[in-house]
Amino acid sequence: MSVRWNRKDLLGLRELSAEEINFILETADAFKQVGTREIKKVPALRGKTLINFFVEPSTRTRTSFELAAFRLSADVINISASTSSLTKGETLKDTARNLEALHADILVLRHSSAGAPQFLAQRLKSSVINAGDGAHEHPTQGLLDIYTIREKRGKIAGLNVAIVGDILFSRVARSNIFGLTKLGAKVTLVGPSTLVPREFEKLGVTVSHQIDNVLPEADVVNLLRIQHERQRKEYFPGIGEYTTLFGLTKERAKLLKPDCLVMHPGPINRGVEIDSEVADGLQSVILDQVTNGLAVRMAVLYLCGGIAT
Amino acid sequence: MRATIIKNGRVIDPANKRDEVVDLAIVDGKIAKSAPKDAEVIDARGLIVAPGLIDVHVHLREPGFGHKETIASGARAAAAGGFTTIVCMPNTSPAADNPATIAWIKDRAAETACVNVLPTGAISKNIAGEELASIGSLGKAGVVAITDDGHCVQNHELMRRAVEYARMVGLPVLDHCQDYSLVGNGVVNEGYWSILLGLPGWPAAGEEAIVARNILLAELCDHQIHCQHISAAGSVRLIREARNRGVKISGEVCPHHIALTDEAIQNFDTNYKMNPPLRARADVDAILEGIADGTLSILCSDHAPHAEFEKEVEFDQAPFGIVGLETELGLFIDLLVHKHNKIDIARLIEMYTTEPAQLLKLDAGTLSVGAPADVTLIGPDLEWTVRMDKFESASRNSPFDGWKLKGRAVRTIVGGKTVWELS
């Protein structure tokens, strides 16, 4: 294994150096080729067992990890919250130790509690890959966003990246903030003051509540899914007002530079944070993100899985 | 006749405004003018001889949670920390909201505890914040105060009536200050670290709002309300202003709120999860100033034992609180007297003796002749290392394992009898 990588776990982008992030991206370049071959499979993790342990529901990320593991020839098991013993009152630690006792090499964890992957990584010999923990981090999403920007624009440093939406509760936003700022991008967070508190500026980003001032300067606009379920009712008045103030409507999209990328981690709410015409437009790279996610996750599993032995 | 003489120590007895190197006599469990010649001799050269220390805020967990702590083990932890009297909170199971549970706690303490255990009763039935508990009967059963600690009565009208009623029966009201609507599901201080880590924030305003409420009610009802475990700068400011106007309001401090800031949570270690949460540096500085100028007048632990399996979980799902009885005196002497030089050791002893005795109207915290011979010997400059594996407490949830501290208790005497001695 390369001296450029010595971590058994991928817990977040905050703890990675710019060199480590770049190394993952370079490794992903090689794996992206695999997806275009007739036989989309390499033996890199043959004989290794990967457990997709999704305590919080997810289809997109779980499927992407599953496919990435298949393409690396790992054996894969999926466990969700409803099928695990957590519903019988077993603690996360006990469940994970049982999985390790089955000689799982890699545990991919999705959990509603911030810090749950750290908690397991400190207690298990297996690799722990964070597939999203509460509002904390979603490092492979951050990496695939960065990978997509780098692929389309050839660089990260110096780019103006706007992240729009529910930043306060977003693990995608945090991983993007940590990764992009390390690589020299200028990040602006946009959204209502309740969901984008000024405190975020201490993370080295700019905060704006005026999307029309931000769009003309942006090289990338990353829109986050906005929800107005029960726990968000106190944070903004409603979807209609959100769209009026912050939605990337067809009209607003005219403010964008022609080469500005439009991104979204999905699943998208058409007509809420983004209009259909923009989501499906020429500037949209939303489906490239999905494709790149596979390559990035293969790289992460390959690198961490190689260390854990 | 059983007699002891403590020789050559520096006797600090704030109740009698005494601070001198003098011998202290104990006869038949009481402080005496002099001791017979054949009295047992304790050499206290180089040590401070203080009235037995009082901790007004501990959780002994019995009845209901004996796997975390028992009255017996909690009392041993108290003795090992230099405490001769501890005041236990009512959030047990069943809650201490009725005279029968108070009687059970007192019986259990009489049978098993090596220090004085004084129960508090709940403000509301089942600590649910909806109806008044039988406060008068609790008073007759011997509680020293009422509190819903761990919870906070949200309904201001109910709290107002509780304070008025408590005034009638002569019980002070202790309050855990937390506005539920502002705090929501917050688990850590709202600020830089909650933003960075994506953990739900517990804003300082959630404490300050209830401190302000309590000041208004203390004025309205002309009765003592004591704000427990103050953590926020704004609370200190509010209490200072109110005390300057003569309002019957007071506040206490736990060592973790001055020893640590919320930076400590960054590895998601649940031994840094407490309620109220660790706060920012500016809050710590404000609390230190509040101690220095007398705004915050009582020191305590909020001793909150939890079993390892309960704390070894996801951060937001772990219970709040840490054990504190065996580290608090060391931390406070080290930080307040030695490191930050905010108060001298005599004031620190006051904050652990006369101040709590006055708040709760206790026959304790004094070395007056005839008083119960509860005495703590303190080595103010003794250097030691916290060893969690040596704790007398049944639980191990402390963030201070391995800390090197200066100052600690070396012997604890309850009713003339040594109940713990440093080995």
Return residue spans of chain A where pLDDT drops below 50 for at least 5 consecutive residues. none
Termini distance of chain B?
28 Å
Work out the helicity level of chain A: 25-40%
Placed side by side, the strands forming the largest sheet of chain A appear as: 7-6-5-8-9
Task: Please tell me what the overall shape of chain B is.
Answer: globular
Topology:
The complex is a heterodimer of chains A (309) and B (423).
Chain A: H1 18-34, E1 49-54, H2 60-71, E2 75-80, H3 92-101, E3 106-111, H4 116-121, E4 127-133, H5 139-153, E5 160-164, H6 171-182, E6 186-190, E7 206-208, H7 211-214, E8 220-223, H8 239-246, E9 261-263, H9 276-279, H10 286-307
Chain B: E1 3-7, E2 10-13, E3 18-21, E4 24-27, E5 30-32, E6 40-43, E7 48-51, E8 53-58, H1 71-81, E9 83-88, H2 99-112, E10 116-119, H3 135-141, E11 146-147, H4 156-169, E12 173-175, H5 180-183, E13 188-189, H6 192-197, E14 201-202, H7 205-221, E15 225-227, H8 233-244, E16 249-253, H9 256-259, H10 281-292, E17 298-299, H11 308-311, H12 328-339, H13 345-352, H14 354-360, E18 375-385, E19 404-414, E20 417-421
Parallel strand pairs in B: 1-6, 2-7, 8-9, 9-10, 11-12, 12-15, 13-14, 15-16, 16-17
Antiparallel strand pairs in B: 1-4, 2-3, 4-5, 7-18, 18-19, 19-20
Helix pairs in contact in B: 2-3, 4-7, 7-8, 8-10
